[in-house]
From TrEMBL:
Domain Response regulatory: 4-122
PANTHER family: TRANSCRIPTIONAL REGULATORY PROTEIN NARL-RELATED, TWO-COMPONENT RESPONSE REGULATOR
One Pfam family here: Response_reg
Residue positions where 4-aspartylphosphate is found in the record: 55
Domain called HTH luxR-type: residue spans: 155-220
Record-linked InterPro entries: CheY-like_superfamily, NreC/VraR/RcsB-like_REC, Sig_transdc_resp-reg_C-effctor, Sig_transdc_resp-reg_receiver, Tscrpt_reg_LuxR_C, WalR-like
Keywords: DNA-binding, Phosphoprotein, Transcription, Transcription regulation
TM annotation in the entry: none
Protein name: Response regulator
Organism: Streptomyces kaempferi
Amino acid sequence: MTIRVLLADDQALLRSAFRVLVDSEPDMEVVGEASDGAEAVRLAGETRADVVLMDIRMPGTDGLAATRLISADPGLAQVRVVMLTTFEVDEYVVQSLRAGASGFLGKGAEPDELLNAIRIAAGGEALLSPAATKGLIAKFLAQGDGADEERDPGRTERLNALTGREREVLVQVAGGHSNDEIAERLEVSPLTVKTHVNRAMAKLGARDRAQLVVIAYESGLVRPRVE
């Protein structure tokens, strides 16, 4: 199956470079380009994109606002957003994940990293590495980034709906572990882990694993640590 990619960046030169890279892959195709967030939201629906490479900083509707709009639209439930940022230590990254992004990638990433990120997001996984996304979540939640009022207190209550095993799996997901790694740690099958992850997402109202990690930290199930 061909992965349909939408490019959202206000710099035409960067979009052209990304288009050449993506279109060079046999399992991907660029289905549209947007120069701002509003256009990205519109094209996400019109092109039936699977993955949006979304720049955070754009004029008008920025990438963060656009990601919120995409995440809130039931008709775009299949769309996965990968945020692109100039600096990997970016205060907007955590807000992006809260808004519904599946992960983030620095614009200085190697071509193979970008292509791998698209495939990971399209497959329903999240770009979570202990040294990057998870570390940033821990850092900003620990320091406080003015988002306390944005948190949903109901999420903490919904944790009570999780079974003991689902909580265990959620802790492992927050640790940045894959289904196979979790299966080995808990001595169950990867399919069982996937089932627990899907049930946890449904109960907690999370779009994907990235949001599960945020919820795990925000609810206090996992405590952030700052090195």
